[in-house]
């Protein structure tokens, strides 16, 4: 095997390792950002009352 062929194989493996490392860090940063946004969200407000439920309607005719 030629030296240049051996070195090109190593360079390709190194590039793949670096790409995977960068992608992994990017995913971790994205997950951390999502967690941070969820923690900063205000507490959920109670749901708005239903416009008809629970009201008394006079149906005398």
Automatic annotation (TrEMBL):
One Pfam match: YjfB_motility
Stretches for region Disordered: 42-61
Protein name: Putative motility protein YjfB-like
Species for this entry: Ureibacillus chungkukjangi
